[in-house]
Structures are given as structure tokens and as C-alpha cells.
Amino acid sequence: MASGRTHDIINLLALPPLVYYLKPSDYIGFSTGYLIGTFFLSPDNDIYHSLPNKRWKFLKVLWKPYTKLFSHRGISHLPVVGVLSKLLYLFFIFFVIVLSVYILLGYFYPEGKKAVSKIAIDYSYLTSPFFVSFLVGLFLSEIIHILTDIVYSLFKKLFPKRIL
After folding, report:
1. Alpha-carbon distance 54 to 9, whole Å?
2. What does each C-alpha distance from 73 to 8, 65, 83, 133, 161 come to in angstroms?
3. Cα 113–chain centre separation
4. Is the pTM for the entire model greater than 0.70?
5. Rounded distance, CA 78 to CA 84, Å?
6. What is the dihedral of CA 35, 40, 43, 49, to 10 degrees?
7. Can you tell me the distance from the alpha carbon of 139 to that of 38, in angstroms, rounded to the nearest whole number?
8. Contact (Cβ atoms closer than 8 angstroms) between residue 45 and residue 72
9. 27-39 vs 4-20: helix crossing angle, rounded to 10
């Protein structure tokens, strides 16, 4: 399996040709999603001491349950399912934090709980061009990571010892 730095280099080298085929309005969303997918939401988040997890610094602890739920090269290494599993996992953590704040707010400040419950959530951003290109960037960064693993493993099987 390729190292984390190898994945980073290959993903970064693939970014310019991918951006070349985009509309200018999609550059920022796609590039943001692609870079976040490369450096923070990699298929290797299922290894606790992986480079992408180390980049989360003190929030690295959030990935401990994820590493227990998913084995390496399991679901997290399936092109679309891997990204969705990480996004759902992070959404669940966010939901638990918001729910905890809501409950604590209701306990210590009941009037605030009523105000928070009246806030309308706008989901229109889910169909915005930025968000769609962001998701495409996340998916493509993961696909390139997985392809790198496949090619690297194939290369190691064909040439078990390096010839120098």
C-alpha cells in the first residue's frame, strides 16, 4: 500500500488536469472538496494513526470510534460509500453536539430553548453549484486514492523486489 505522502503527491498532481475540464464557476467548490478529501477525509481515516487523522490535531480523537467501526480497506475504500460513511459519521457527531447544547440550553436557560427551536434550517445549499462541485471533488479525491492503492498493490505483486 502506498504511503500517505505518496497519496498526497499523486492527488495533488491529478488536481490541475481535473480542474482544467471544469467550468470556472466550479473551480473553488471542486478544489476545496478535493483538497479536503485529499488531506482530511481520506479512505485512510479508518487507521487511527494515519496521516489524514494526524492532520485533525486535537480533533483526531473524533476518528477513534470510526476506526473501531470500519476495518482498513473495507467500506471506507469503496468509492462512493467511503465518502458517504465519513460524511454521515461527521454529521452524526455534529448532531450529537447540537442536541447536547440544545438540552443543556433548555436546562439552564429555558427561554433560549424556545428561541432555538424556532430557527428554520435552510437546506437549499445542498443543491447549490458550489456544494455539488464540492461533493464531486470529495468523491474524485477518494477515487484517485483508491486507484493509487490498486496500482501500487498490483505493481508490488508484479515486481516483488526492486531492481536498482
Report:
1. 17
2. 18, 16, 13, 26, 24
3. 32
4. yes
5. 10
6. 140
7. 10
8. no
9. 170
Q: Which of 44, 21, 3 is nearest to 137 (CA)?
A: 21
pLDDT at position 163: 56
Q: How many CA atoms lie within 13 A of 115 on its CB side?
A: 5
Instruction: Say which residue the cell 470510526 belongs to.
Output: 66
What does the pLDDT look like over 39-82, one tens digit per residue? 999 988 888 888 999 999 999 999 999 999 888 777 888 888 99
What's the CA gap between 13 and 58, in Å, rounded? 29
pLDDT tens digits for 75-123? 888 888 999 999 999 999 998 988 888 788 777 777 766 666 666 566 7
The C-alpha cell that represents 145 in the structure block: 486514492
Other C-beta atoms closer than 10 Å to the C-beta of 92 total 11
Place of cell 482498513: 72
Q: List C-alpha distances in Å: 28 to 21, 42, 75, 97.
A: 13, 19, 28, 29
Contacting residues for 70 by C-beta, under 8 A, at least 6 apart:
46, 76, 85
Are 47 and 67 contacting, i.e. CB atoms less than 8 angstroms apart?
yes
Q: How far is CA 95 from CA 59, 98, 132, in A?
A: 16, 5, 22
Q: Which amino acid is at 108?
A: F
